[in-house]
Amino acid sequence: MSELFDRVDALVASRSPLPPPAERKRLRTAHGLTLDEVAAALQVRRATVSGWESSTKATEPRGKEREAYARLLKQLTELYPADANTSTPVQDTAVPATFASNPAPAPEAQPVSTVPASDAAAMTTQHDTQPTSTPESVPAAAPRPARTARPSTTSRRPAARKAAPANTPAGADPRFANGPLAVVDVDADGQVLAYCTGGLVLDVPAKSLPSLVDWTLKEARLGQLKLSGPGKDADPLLVLTPSALERFGLPVALSEEERLAGRIPEGHKVIKQLVRAEWKLTKRGFGPWARVYLPAQGSERACVQLCIPSWNALDTRHWGEAAQLPPAELARVLGVYATRVMTPRGSTAVTGLELMTALHPPTRASEPDAEGKRHSEHNPGSLGKDPVDCAPCEAPDGHPLLKDLPRFHVRGPGEKLFEEAYDWARPMTDAECTLRHLVGIDVNMAFAAGANGLTVGLGAPTHVKAPVFDAKLPGSWLVDLSHVDLSRVKVGKDTWAELDASLLPSPFTPKGERPEGPAWYATPTVAYAVELGYEVHPLEAWVRRENGRYLDGWYNRLRDAYLATMADLGVDADVAPEDFLAAMDGYKSRDPELAIVVSAIKATVKGGLGKLRERPRGEGWRPGEPWRALSRPTWRPDIRAAVISRTRINLHRKIVKHAAFTGQYPIAVLSDCVVYAANGPSPLDFLPYRDGKPLPGGFKLGINPGLVKHEGTQSVLWGEEVRERFNAPELNLARYIKDGTVTDVDNGE
After folding, report:
1. Nearest to 581 by CA among 594, 595, 571, 566
2. Which residue intervals of 379-457 are DSSP H helices?
3. What region does 17 belong to: left with phi over 0, alpha with psi -120 to 50, or beta?
C-alpha cells in the first residue's frame, strides 16, 4: 500500500502549482541565486530554468523537475513574501560589520620608500596578468536597486546591511562572501559606505586611503576565485565616487597635465601616505586604474585595485553613462560584468587581454621532485611567460625587426601581412534602384565567433621556403591568389555556382579588391581559396608548429556572458525569427544598466583582440625602437590577424551562399555589417527562410555569436541622395545604415 501511496504523492507533486514566471525570477534573485546554481541543483540546463522564468515562453517543468522546482519556490516564498519590498530574508538579524571570528590574514609589512623600476616591472608582470574568476556567491543579475538620489543633509541614512558568514551560499569561498567589488561612497551624514553586489551595503571605518586598503584586505571579504587551476584569485576592486575621493584627499577630476600623464604626481600627499604606510604602486602610478600592493610573501598576496570613474576610468564609448550612476546601481553594473566576465582590470581592452591570461596562466606548479618540492613550469596551452618575436611580415611599421628598412619605405602586400575587417561598397545596379529599402544586418559578436575553434600559434614562427599549404597549420603564407575567380566557385563539396563577380567583394583584401599578385595571408584566408575550388602554391611561409585552440575558453566565457545578459533583457536564444526581431526591438530600454553590460562585453571582445597588436602609446617612442607592449607574451599580431581573417572569411562564405541561392548581392560591407536592397524594411524580406528554417550556411537571425540581427533600414532614395550629395558613388552606406545620419564623407578611416 505504501508503494501505491508513493505513486499517488508523485502524481500530485507532478502538478504542483507554480507562481507566475516573473515571480519565479524575483524569488531566485532575491535569494542571490544564479540561473546556473538553480540548474545545477535541479539537474537541468541553464536555458531550461531561464525558459521557466520567461513570460514569452510556454515552457513549464514536468515530473520530478516540477516537484523539486515547486519545493524550491515554496521555501523562497516563505523567505521573501511578495508584499515585502525587500530582498532581505525575513528571519535575518543584524550582525557585526567586522569578522573577528575569521579575519583575513594581514600581510607582513615591508619597509619601502620608493618603487624601484625593477620592482615596478615585476609587479606589473605579476599583478597585471593575474587571473580571476566568478564566485558562485555573487548573483549573476542581482535585483535591481531602486534609483535614489543622494539623501539631503536632513534625511536619515538607512541602516547599512552587514554580511555574515552564515549568509555565504553553499560551496562559495567565505573569503569573497561579499562579491568581487564595492563602490565606495560617502553619504550626507559623512558615513563611508561600500556598496557591494546583490544590494549589500557595508559601513567602512577607514579615515584615509591606506586604512581603506587595509580594511578591504582584512574585513571586506571582496575578491574572486581564480578562473583556472594554475591561476591566482582576483584582487578586490574598489570604485571610488567623487565624494569618496574628497574624503580620502584625492582630486575629483584630473588636471589637463595629469590627464595627459595618466596619473597624479608622485609627490601628492595621498601617495606619501601610502609610502609611509609601506604600500607600493605599480609603475603606471596612481591613475584612473591604480593598484596598491605589498610585495608577495610566498603564496600570500596583498593587493587592492582602485577604479576612479570621474578620472575617466569607464570610457563612455563602452560603459555609456555608468560613471554617472548612483553607487548601488554602479555596483550592480560592474558586479554583473565581473561575475560573468571577470573583475575589470582596466579598460575593456585590457580586461579582454587579461581574460586570455586568466584562462591560460603562463606557468603551473610541477609535480613534486625527489625532495617533495614543487617548482614553476610552463603551463601547456598557454603563451608562456616570455614574449616571442613575430615574423617580419607580421610586424607593424616601426617594429625593431624593420629598423634596417629605408626611412620612407612603404611595404606592399608582398612584404606585409594585412588582415583587416571589411570596408567595401559598390554602386547600386538599376534593378536594385527599383527596390524600396536598404536593409542592414549585423553579425553578433562576429570576432568572438571568429575566435571560436580557431587553431593559433603558441610559440615562435619557423620560416619555410616553397611549403605545401596545410590548412591545419597556423601561420602567414606568401601566395598568389589573383587566379581565384568568384564568377565560378564551389559552394559545396561537389557543387559549383556561377556568380556575378563584379557584385561581390574579394575575400582576400579588406577593401574587397581582387589581389594582383603574391601577398601575405593568414591560414584561414588561404584555406578559403582552396575551399572555393582553387589550388594554391605558397612561395614561402612563417608557420607555428606549436599551436592550439588558445581562444576557445575566452570565447566560451564571453559568449555565455553575452547570452546570459541578453536573456535578462528578454532576448533568448533559439526563438522564431519573428519573435527574435520583436524581442530585439527596444531591448536596451528594458534595463538600461544591463544594456551597459552588453556594450562592455562587446568592447571586451574587440578591445582584447586589438591589444594583441598594441602600438606605441606616447612613451617617447621612435621608429625602430621597442615599445612597452612588446615585452608581453600576449603581444601576438599573428593571433589577431588569424581571428580577423577567419571573421572576414566567415562573412564572405555567407554572402556567397546567399548570392548562389537567391541571386542577391550586398551593396556594402563594413566589418560585421552587410547591406542589401529589398522590397521590404525587414531582414525577413530578403533572407530565404523556408518553414522557419534558414538557408544552410547562409545568414540566420538569432542572438548567438555568428548569427545576425537587424542593424537598420533606410530607403533606397536615402542611399542615392547621400552618395550624390557627397559625390561618392561607392560611399559605404553600411557605416550609416543604423540611423541614417551622415556627418562627413566616408574616407575609409
Report:
1. 571
2. 430-433, 446-451
3. beta
